[in-house]
Design a protein that fits this description.
Layout: H1 16-26, E1 30-31, H2 43-54, H3 67-81, E2 91-94, H4 97-108, E3 114-119, H5 125-131, E4 135-140, H6 150-156, E5 161-167, H7 179-189, E6 195-199, H8 219-222, E7 225-230, H9 231-234, E8 243-246, H10 249-262, H11 268-277, H12 281-285, H13 287-302, E9 317-321, H14 330-341, E10 343-344, E11 346-347, E12 360-364, H15 369-379
Length: about 375
């Protein structure tokens, strides 16, 4: 009998996104759990992929990404954030933002290092920290607006802190960090060697006249940061898994060392198509209005229900509070909502290391009006 090695991640199971999507499929429920659109990406973008496939661009791309795509990323970054990274030394194309996050953490976290994580948080951060031998240090965001308690952050920093991970706009809560938040973070890190990993994949989904303030706009933070973005989110192509990281040359050099042994390169026809389509600046410039309209439509549907909510400030997720409906644990309620009501959501406890249950669910509103209307009708029966 084989004596198998013990698990490197003994407390990690199947992700909540897979669990809830599988349950939704089994019960033919409306899936507002996993964060993906139920509508297609722009047809011209699809046509470009087909064009490049037929033209024979189906082999490996350069490890760091096609030069023409990195150049377009550099120009777009300058247009949006006023900073033009060097496309050769500061921009790396990755197979999705999740790969970029993995590569960034793996590049700088060593055994014994501490990494500060603001909870609730996207579920890929902590497993990678642990695989690198690092220790996550958890700081809870403050309810009800999920803002950062910078005093707590300051108090938890130590001589072992190597990295702090921030996410704005924030998944799962939709909170958006302000310019003042960035200034406060910069002041806290001044005089230290602590690095920043800024997950900004929802950068073009900020609502109600607010702005997304990127780490790239702050010179003191920029020099110590990895900034991760996602074409999957921006172009409604989550299944293509194309993202990128912007970082100073020395950090990019280390990130690429990890990237080349994780995926090496990213699909060539997708990169070529995206590089061409980036000329259509209107797409990402109009994305805030596009998703705000969907948020507002979904909130109209929620008005008919017993759920409580504060309008999401960003992302394509909306939190709802259900403590006026039941005192069930959020995972149990989410499963029952899927099997009995026919609408799947994500329980927010899944984003806490200790499964903190504040009676919140997360719905994804990156859906057609038909889907959101049908979901609203079902949720009104709860």
């Amino acid at each position: 009998m084989i004596n198998y090695p013990t698990s490197k991640l003994p407390d990690v199971g199947t992700t909540i996104f897979t669990v809830m999507s599988t349950l939704a499929n089994e019960h033919k429920a409306i899936n507002l759990s996993q964060g993906f659109p139920d509508f297609n990406c722009p047809e011209p973008l699809m046509n470009l992929v087909t064009k490049y496939m037929h033209e024979g661009f189906n082999q490996y791309a350069p490890m760091a990404g096609l030069p023409q795509l990195r150049q377009k990323i550099s120009l777009k970054t300058e247009k949006v954030y006023g900073y033009r990274p060097d496309p050769d030394t500061e921009v790396t194309v990755t197979s999705g933002a999740t790969e970029a996050l993995n590569a960034a953490i793996s590049a700088v976290v060593k055994p014994g290092d501490e990494v500060m994580v603001l909870e609730p948080c996207y579920d890929s951060y902590v497993p990678v920290i642990r695989l690198c031998g690092g220790s996550p240090v958890f700081v809870p965001l403050s309810l009800p607006d999920f803002s950062v308690d910078w005093d707590q952050v300051k108090n938890r920093l130590s001589s072992r802190t190597r990295l702090i991970i921030i996410n704005t706009p924030h998944n799962p809560t939709g909170a958006v960090m302000s310019r003042q938040d960035m200034n406060t973070l910069a002041n806290l890190l001044n005089g230290t060697d602590i690095l920043v990993l800024s997950d900004e994949v929802y950068e073009h989904m900020v609502f109600d006249g607010q702005e997304h303030f990127s780490v790239l706009q702050h010179p003191q933070l920029r020099e110590r940061s990895f900034v991760v973005s996602s074409f999957g989110k921006t172009y409604h192509t989550t299944g293509w898994k194309v993202g990128y990281a912007v970082a100073p040359p020395q950090l990019s050099k280390e990130l690429r060392k990890m990237h080349q042994f994780i995926t090496f390169s990213t699909a060539t026809p997708f990169q070529l198509a995206i590089a061409d389509f980036m000329e259509e600046e209107a797409h990402y410039l109009e994305l805030p209005n596009f998703y705000q309209a969907k948020r507002d439509f979904f909130l109209q549907q929620l008005q008919q229900t017993r759920f409580e909510f504060m309008p999401s400030a960003g992302t394509y997720f909306q939190l709802v509070k259900y403590n006026g409906i039941t005192d069930e644990h959020d995972l149990d309620f989410a499963k029952r909502l899927t099997t009995e009501t026919g609408v799947a959501a994500i329980p927010i406890s899944a984003f806490y290391h200790d499964k903190t249950d504040n009676k919140y669910l997360r719905f994804c509103f990156a859906k057609s009006e038909e889907t959101l209307r049908a979901a609203g009708e079902m949720l009104a029966k709860v």
